[in-house]
Give the backbone structure.
Amino acid sequence: MISIIIIILGIIMIAAAFYAIHSKSLLSAIISAGVISLLASVVYLLLAAPDVAMTEAAIGSGLTTIIFIFTLRKIKKGGLDD
Amino acid sequence: MINRIFILLALLGLILMFLPFLKDFDFHDQLGDLSSQYVEGSINDLNSQNVVTSVVVTYRGLDTLGEVTVLFLATAGIGFLLRTKKRSKKSRKSSELLQTASQFLLVLIILTGIYIFLHGHLTPGGGFQGGVLIATAFLLLILADANVEFNHKVLHLVESFSGTFYVLIGFLGLLLLGMNSFLDPTIIPLGSFGKLLSAGAIPVIYSLVGLKVGSELTTILDKMGGE
């Protein structure tokens, strides 16, 4: 049962990865990369690794996504010296 | 077109590289020699309930020190590259809902982070996870008000003191217990199994790591998030 859930999550993760590569909007790409991390943390939890799951959920889907969004906003504004 | 063929060839090469590992892969029903050493040592010698924590902090303590150093260097680099930060006074305000909620949630999230790194030797999680959680609390403040000012003196003091004490505890092991005991947690009495005051210096080290990671990531977010 657990392996079926993990396989489904893996398929969704691969689909999200392809979406992140092929999406025209950078914001959607960043968010789908965050979704990959969130699903990866669920997979770690199902594989009985709660320590790694916590790290992945907090860093991978939380902080990294936000830092990418901050950077995207800075790039769109035309650099640091505005 | 030719690019795609090269990409496909590179992927095929990668698959061929990793195929031998797949052939040797099998599930283990019982722990190997090294793993059972770690599990028994963690329970009997270190009085630590969470085996992952005792591996991260004690058996692979030097690696953790290296990770903390890498994070410190990354923070220093970001601080160097993004030091020219101008705050525009007239940035747009975020919604009142977010502002009120951030005031309310800040303390709760910080408390959860402190709980996670204090109980690193009892429950899943530890210094890194707790530190990141504390940094997300400050991230909420930045999201609510982009002009929020952090006290950089306090942040830098917390960061450098926790890093210094982490290394000092490591050297204390060398001093008190002799060679081969850098970062040995048995310099502090081990306490009783499963209690908050157990596992020797592991909760102290993990609290220091938590404070260090939290202050470093808050500094990074502050540098990145300024309008």
